UniProtKB/TrEMBL annotation:
This is Inositol oxygenase. Its EC number is 1.13.99.1. Pathway: Polyol metabolism; myo-inositol degradation into D-glucuronate; D-glucuronate from myo-inositol: step 1/1. It comes from Hibiscus sabdariffa. Signal peptide: none annotated. InterPro entries: Inositol_oxygenase. Keywords: Ascorbate biosynthesis, Cytoplasm, Iron, Metal-binding, Oxidoreductase. The keyword Cytoplasm applies.
Length: 299
């Protein structure tokens, strides 16, 4: 996958950098299925499948697993593909962890980006961040390793320290071997006060993968854009204020943008579909601002 901004074209102004206001955003109260958003315990047509995904996820996301995945997939040696090609690849996949959306993922990318573009018309770096924030879900595709859904989608959380109770379907951590390991099951585990999220291992999935892709390609998206990509599924942090003891100053600053982004990521999920051909020229022009570097294929 290729994603690179050659020049730092996407800059956040001083004012925006410090903006915490929500731009007047009004969140809808019910999702397309007639339930509250993120209603993981309400009976719905998606509830059982979603819980089963989280059960498998919570049992298998361990320190060893995350280290192995980061090594295996961080090399980016599989395939070379442009950003828009990756968006189109996601036309085949529905996210099985999501109680609020059963549309193809390309729709979710465009719904998020279009919603944020409407309220933040001048923030082109944010439009691009929204377009690519879930591109890491290409891990589901055979060309990128065909990982199972539980290892690609769903909320993320730190491994190597205690699993916070605010994490969705927390009870399923009981069967995670790290949960019984005294080196890993305390408040700090292998970390220390204020160590910074960059030093924390996060459960493996599309966020960290896409971050590694962006970093490896020397993306010059602003630090807030990379932070959004890397932690947008970390709801325990940005929704429930858990794990704050691991954050440093830069994390706290970037978190403000992540909180803004999250509203569009979550509440733009809808059955009203975006006309892909209509918006494609705008996003291609954004992508064309970036200079592409090719990732070598497997020999
Ligand atoms: O089910 C969703 C989905 O997998 C999203 O891509 C992720 O960012 C969210 O955290 C999760 O709740
Ligand atoms: Fe996501
Ligand atoms: Fe998303």
């Amino acid at each position: 996958m290729t994603i690179l901004v050659e020049q730092p074209e996407f800059e956040i102004g001083f004012e925006e950098r410090h903006r915490v206001a929500d731009g007047g955003f009004v969140a809808p109260t019910i999702n397309s299925f007639g339930h509250t958003f993120r209603g993981y315990h309400v009976e719905s047509e998606r509830q059982k499948g979603v819980e089963e995904l989280y059960r498998t996820n919570h049992i298998n996301q361990t320190v060893d697993f995350v280290r192995r995945m980061r090594e295996e997939h961080g090399e980016l040696k599989r395939v070379e593909m442009s950003i828009w090609e990756c968006c189109e690849l996601l036309n085949e996949f529905v996210d099985e962890s999501d109680p609020d959306l059963d549309e193809p993922q390309i729709q979710h990318l465009l719904q998020t980006a279009e919603a944020i573009r409407k309220d933040y018309p001048d923030e082109d770096w944010l439009h691009l961040t929204a377009l690519i924030h879930d591109l890491g879900k290409v891990l589901l595709h055979p060309a990128f390793g065909e990982l199972p859904q539980w290892a690609v989608v769903g909320d993320t959380f730190p491994v190597g320290c205690a699993f916070d109770e605010s994490i969705v379907h927390h009870k399923h951590f009981q069967e995670n071997p790290d949960n019984r390991n005294p080196a890993y099951n305390t408040k700090y585990g292998i970390y220390s006060q204020g160590c910074g999220l960059d030093n924390v291992l996060i459960s493996w999935g599309h966020d960290d993968y896409m971050y590694l892709v962006a970093k490896e390609n020397k993306s010059t998206l602003p630090s807030a854009g990379l932070f959004i990509i890397r932690y947008h599924s970390f709801y325990a942090l940005h929704r429930c204020d858990a794990y704050r003891h691991l954050m440093n100053e830069e994390d706290r600053e970037n978190l403000q943008w992540l909180k803004i982004f999250n509203k569009y990521d979550l509440y733009s999920k809808s059955k009203v579909l975006i006309d892909v051909d209509k918006v494609k020229p705008y996003y291609l022009s954004l992508i064309n601002k970036v200079k592409e570097i090719l990732i070598p294929k497997n020999p």
